[in-house]
Amino acid sequence: MTSPQTPIDSPFGYRSTAREVAAAGNVAGKMIVVTGGYSGIGTETVRALAGQGARVIVGARRVDQARDVLQDMEGDITILPLDLSDPASIDAFADAVAGQTGSIDILINNAAIMASPLARDARGYEAQFATNHLGHFQLTARLWPLLVADGGARVVALSSIGHRLHGLDLDDTGFERRDYDKWLAYGQAKSANALFALQLDRLGEGRGVRAFAVHPGGIATPLQRHLTMEEQTAMGWYDADGNVHEAFKSTEEGASTTVWCATSPLLDGMGGVYCEDCNIAGPADPENPRGGGAWPHIRDERLARDLWRTSEDMTGVSFPG
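RE: above sequence
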């Protein structure tokens, strides 16, 4: 049963780091797959988990860059090529993972693009929706036999406070009829990530798989590569001297909620919730739209089911069993 979207008593919070959270979990010997685990908060996610004795497989679109970033990192880390915008690459990655292990304990769907110019993937789908949601939908389906193999697996889907922009139109996910808006497209994709976790948890609970959606917080990372400094200054992320806003988290702090959802024993028997600051988020306050929390549409079970069916149609992929 989907857990209530209500905060619990967590010992961690806004400024907790990924390594602090990982040290409180029991991940030694666990098999963990992280997409995009070589940039931004993905790097710190891998560092924290591998440093506690987990075996981590990193899916990387830029394999050489991933090797440069991760080569001196402590722990058992394997890098495999993965391009979430290419269905053939996703299938090849899943096959390669299956060649490495018979089961997965934790899948972290971390990789993303944000506010990019209009582009389309190998199937012709809008790139933000395709990469952030459809690519991970297909990947999770392909890895499903490994996730259910031993029971007790967790899937963590990286969403964002950007879900407040909603924008999810199942009749026009590709902006064929709407004028393209890079932020509305991002909000659509991040809403889809949260709804995916909601529905995956409902379908997976009986097989021992629970799912969580995560807002990592505001962090200055390469995710902002498509934004000019002028845009980021206008949004208040940086001041006129180029200093990042004091409320922003470090990358290690930004990875903490991902690691909390992946490892915390407090979440045993729970799932389907949207989390932030190492806790289950409360409802969003319409009077304070930048204040965090879960907006009602990402808790809409009917919308989650409809998105699931649309995703199956768009990818030609369904979850076995």
